[in-house]
Structures are given as structure tokens and as C-alpha cells.
């Protein structure tokens, strides 16, 4: 390991987007000796955030998500892993079931890694924002980016409220519909509707037994259903409901949680899984309508001049991958290391060289797993799997998930055991 340069040539950074990727990037830059300021489009009272957060009540907790071991290791590199450990509930394994209740597979992560953590998105965001604030990182809200000018020596950002900000670099952590991505290259692909609407809920009380840390994914007869029941008798569930016509989040919310809950109960009437009982235990006020699922073709170019995108703005992951926030955290930490050790142009090239192979492999793996199992691909289309497709899936899935030995095709060690050496010099 060679000695690191005493001070980065990049002194200041504008981070567009106050979600997980943006806040982690700001903390990593701060640790690298770079002054970072975060600009978030939504204000403090909107109840919604960029990058797909917010929108609906859901018990005030936002949607459910998981932070994988590699995401926790990335946070460990910047001394922030405790924020997830404090609020998260361990997920010891992932279990797959058919709509008949048949057990198809159970996949456990490597035992020597931190347990995957189940978290509520809002609680995670609040915890990370509080940690960033404690480190003296300013987060400016109500700052929707309109445009940015790269002068060759810095970037000036212009916001919808008429204000401006300038720094050495601009980092777009502004989610699937990234404004920064469009500034880098207007021809970048746009998100596509994936054929389902997503709903999440926290059930305060259920009579069903605890799943003892196991997160269940059920390939229902008409829709996909995931759930976990906790030791305190509360539970969380998520549904991908096929819907032929695309609806915006606002349009889906206008239908009303009560009406959607009625439709969800009808969709799972025939399923012999805990889905009917959990839906029966759910009140409309606890349902979060998170809106349409969307996919985006891979983006190969992440930077131009002094602007770069990270997280969902660069590589949107399927929600079923469980890697969205974790890969975003990895990328945020690695970008800070690159800017710490190299001039901007070389730093961005080094970052893309570091990240593209890993991100591309996980994207390819997620697609291959969905195709191999047949089930995941079916949940992303408006047409549910038919009887023959379900029979083939249930026969092949137990075999497919055993490929590669312990951990199977989904929970392989190569995804989760990804440690970042903060002190190692880049380049």
C-alpha cells in the first residue's frame, strides 16, 4: 500500500438528492476531507422524498427494505454501520413458497457476515440524516435542481427557488428519474413501467407466529407477496400487484387505500399462505401505496466533465434483488475514495472502472436468476403465471436455487462479502 496524498485536489462537492446514496456520499466525502453539501428537492414537511421514497402513510414508516451485509460493510468503512444495526431487524434467511403453501427453497447468507437487516425506509433515512447532521454536513431541503453549468474548473447548480450553488464537482444521487443524469446525457434511457403496482404495510398486531428472522417470498396465484412476522407479533408485507395500465403514484393513491386493500384481499383469496390472514389484519391507514414498479436499461456512462451519477441514478436495481441501497452505499464510499486520491477526471474514470464490473455482474445475476426461476419474471408482467408455468416454476426453483452450493443462486457470498479498505490508496 502506497502513501496517500496529503489533501484531495477536490475541495468541495454538491450532492443532489438527500436519500441514502446522497447522505452516505456526503459522509464519505466528509471523511475524505472534502466539504459536501446536500440539496434535496422535497422540503422538510412534504412527507415524501426523492429517489422513490415517501408517498402514503404506511404507519409513518415509509416502505420496507433490507440492507445487505455488503451495504453494512460500506457503512462500516465510514464509521456509520451502527445507524443500521440500531434500527434494523435481522433477516436470517430468505424462504420461497408457492401459492399452495409448498416450501420451495430457503437461502441463508454466509454465516461469517453481518446479518441482513430489515428496515423501514423512513426510519433509515431519518437515522442516516441525523448521523450526517451530527458530522456537520448541511442538508438543504426544498432545492429542486433545474440546471447546472460545468465551467471546467467547477459546477454551478441552479434550483427552482432561484438560488444557486457552486462547487468543484456535482454528484447526482437523485434517483431513478435523475435530473443530473439527463444533464450528463439527454439520450440516457428513461424508466419503463414494469407492469405492477407496489403496496407495503406494517401490521401492528397479528395472531400468526413469528417467522424467527426468515423473510418469506410467496409466488401467489395472482400476485407476488413477501412478508416477515416479528417477535413482538407485528408484521410487514409487500405486494407486487399486476396492473395492465400504468398509474403514477398520485393516480394510485387517488384510488384510496381502502379500495386497494379490498382488491389485494381478492387477489390472494385462493392462496394457501399467510397472505389472506395478514391482509385481513391490515387496516387501510397502515397501507403505503408506493406506486408503479419501474425498470431502466443499464447506463454505461456515469459521468461527464465534473458531474457524475451514483445509486439509482446510475444503476437502478430490481426491488427483488435486495441490493439497491447497499450498492448505492458501496458506490458512495468508493467515489469519495477516488476523489480523495485523484484529480477529478482521473477520479471519475477510476470510479467507473471500480464499480462497473461489480454492478454489471449483479445486474446480470439478478436478471439470470429471474429467468431461471421463471417466477420473478412473471411478477414483473401484467399477466400472472398460468397453471403450467406455475408447475414448471415450482419444480425447477428448488433445483435452480441450489446451483453454486450453500447460499444458492441468490444469496452467494460473492455478492455479500465485499469489503472496502478505506485506507488503501486509489490509483
Automatic annotation (TrEMBL):
Transmembrane domains' residue ranges: 12-29
Start and end residues of each FAD-binding domain: 13-364
Region of interest called Disordered, as start-end residue ranges on this chain: 272-296
Entry keyword annotation includes Transcription regulation: no
GO molecular function: monooxygenase activity
Keyword presence, Membrane: yes
Domain of life: Bacteria
Keywords: Membrane, Monooxygenase, Oxidoreductase, Transmembrane, Transmembrane helix
One Pfam family linked to the record: FAD_binding_3
PANTHER family reported for this sequence: MONOOXYGENASE, PUTATIVE (AFU_ORTHOLOGUE AFUA_6G14510)-RELATED
Official protein name in the record: FAD-dependent monooxygenase
Species of the source: Streptomyces durmitorensis
Amino acid at each position: 500500500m502506497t502513501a496517500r496524498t496529503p489533501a484531495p485536489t477536490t475541495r468541495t462537492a454538491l450532492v443532489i438528492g438527500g436519500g441514502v446514496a446522497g447522505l452516505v456520499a456526503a459522509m464519505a466525502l466528509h471523511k475524505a476531507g472534502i466539504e459536501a453539501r446536500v440539496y434535496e428537492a422535497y422540503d422538510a414537511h412534504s412527507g415524501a422524498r426523492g429517489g422513490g421514497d415517501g408517498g402514503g402513510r404506511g404507519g409513518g414508516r415509509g416502505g420496507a427494505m433490507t440492507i445487505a451485509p455488503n451495504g453494512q460493510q460500506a457503512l462500516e468503512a465510514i464509521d456509520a454501520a451502527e445507524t443500521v444495526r440500531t434500527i434494523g431487524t435481522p433477516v436470517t434467511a430468505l424462504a420461497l413458497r408457492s401459492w399452495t403453501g409448498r416450501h420451495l427453497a430457503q437461502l441463508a447468507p454466509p454465516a461469517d457476515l453481518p446479518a441482513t437487516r430489515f428496515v423501514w425506509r423512513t426510519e433509515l433515512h431519518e437515522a442516516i440524516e441525523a448521523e450526517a447532521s451530527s458530522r456537520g454536513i448541511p442538508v438543504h431541503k426544498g432545492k429542486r435542481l433545474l440546471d447546472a453549468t460545468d465551467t471546467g474548473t467547477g459546477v454551478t447548480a441552479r434550483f427552482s427557488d432561484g438560488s444557486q450553488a457552486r462547487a468543484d464537482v456535482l454528484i447526482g444521487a437523485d434517483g431513478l428519474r435523475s435530473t443530473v443524469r439527463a444533464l450528463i446525457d439527454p439520450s440516457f434511457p428513461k424508466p419503463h413501467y414494469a407492469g405492477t403496482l407496489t403496496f407495503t404495510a406494517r401490521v401492528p398486531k397479528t395472531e400468526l407466529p413469528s417467522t424467527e428472522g426468515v423473510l418469506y417470498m410467496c409466488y401467489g396465484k395472482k400476485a407476488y407477496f413477501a412478508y416477515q412476522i416479528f417477535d413482538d407479533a407485528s408484521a410487514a408485507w409487500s405486494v407486487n400487484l399486476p396492473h395492465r395500465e400504468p398509474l403514477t403514484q398520485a393516480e394510485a393513491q387517488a384510488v384510496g387505500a381502502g379500495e386497494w386493500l379490498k382488491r389485494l384481499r381478492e387477489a390472494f383469496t385462493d392462496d394457501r399462505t399467510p397472505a389472506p390472514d395478514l391482509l385481513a389484519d391490515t387496516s387501510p391507514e397502515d397501507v403505503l401505496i408506493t406506486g408503479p414498479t419501474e425498470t431502466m436499461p443499464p447506463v454505461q456512462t456515469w459521468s461527464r466533465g465534473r458531474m457524475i451519477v451514483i445509486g439509482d441514478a446510475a444503476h437502478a436495481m430490481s426491488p427483488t434483488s435486495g441490493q439497491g441501497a447497499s450498492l448505492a452505499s458501496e458506490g458512495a464510499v468508493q467515489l469519495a475514495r477516488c476523489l480523495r486520491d485523484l484529480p477529478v477526471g482521473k477520479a471519475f474514470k477510476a470510479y467507473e472502472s471500480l464499480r462497473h464490473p461489480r454492478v454489471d455482474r449483479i445486474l446480470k445475476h439478478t436478471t439470470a436468476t429471474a429467468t431461471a426461476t421463471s417466477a420473478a419474471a412473471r411478477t414483473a408482467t401484467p399477466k400472472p403465471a398460468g397453471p403450467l408455468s406455475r408447475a414448471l416454476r415450482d419444480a425447477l426453483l428448488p433445483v435452480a436455487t441450489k446451483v453454486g452450493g450453500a447460499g444458492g443462486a441468490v444469496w452467494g457470498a460473492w455478492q455479500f462479502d465485499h469489503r472496502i479498505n478505506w485506507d488503501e490508496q486509489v490509483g
